[in-house]
Amino acid sequence: MKRHTWQRDAVRDALSTRENFVSAQQLHAALRAGGSSIGLATVYRALADLAVEGEADSLQQEGESLYRACTPGTHHHHLICRRCGLTVEIEADAVEQWANSVAAEHGFTDAHHVVDVFGTCAECASEIAQLPSAT
């Protein structure tokens, strides 16, 4: 476990105020706007450490790592809006059963997996439907 510094605590606190996934650059900008002197490289390191320790979820979207605070020790999946980033933690018992079954069929034990489902949330779908169609 990494030692706790004021910078790491600041990143953890800032991340905990966000409901959706956020990039290191976005989080850094928010910290700086709030008066912090923290550097971008420090934000990247702190986010990576939080993800390794299970205090943050991480995903790749369009080649960029995005992060979201999570409860350590809980296994969950995400439903993520591609347009606005709205993120919902979901239970997926069928996925759990499938992953364990496939692993067992091939002689694997202690299988781990990550499942993120991307789509368009109801609000964004409604906005898209209201856009004038291109002709």
3D structure, described in words:
Helix content is 41%, strand content 20%. The protein is α+β, with helices and mostly antiparallel strands. The chain folds into 2 domains: 1-72, Arc Repressor Mutant, subunit A; 75-135, Ferric-uptake regulator, C-terminal dimerisarion domain (Dna Ligase, domain 1, 2-Layer Sandwich). Strands 1-3-2 form a 3-stranded antiparallel beta sheet. Strand 4 and strand 5 form a beta hairpin. Helix 1 packs across helix 2, helix 1 packs across helix 3 and helix 2 crosses helix 3. The chain is flat, with a radius of gyration of 18 Å.
Q: What integer is the average pLDDT?
A: 89
Biggest sheet, spatial arrangement of strands: 1-3-2
Radius of gyration: 18 Å
CATH H level, superfamily name of the largest domain:
Winged helix-like DNA-binding domain superfamily/Winged helix DNA-binding domain
Summed up, the helix count is 5
Shape: flat
Would you count the extended β strands for me?
Answer: 6
N-to-C SSE series? HEHHEEEEHEH
What is the domain tally?
2
Architecture of the largest domain, according to CATH?
Orthogonal Bundle
The major β-sheet equals: 3 strands, antiparallel
What is the class of the largest domain in the CATH system? Mainly Alpha
Kindly report the CATH topology of the largest domain: Arc Repressor Mutant, subunit A
Helix content: 40-55%
Structural class: alpha+beta
Overview features:
single chain; 135 residues; alpha+beta; Arc Repressor Mutant, subunit A; Dna Ligase, domain 1; 3-stranded antiparallel β-sheet; 3-stranded mixed β-sheet; 5 helices; 6 strands; 20% strand; flat
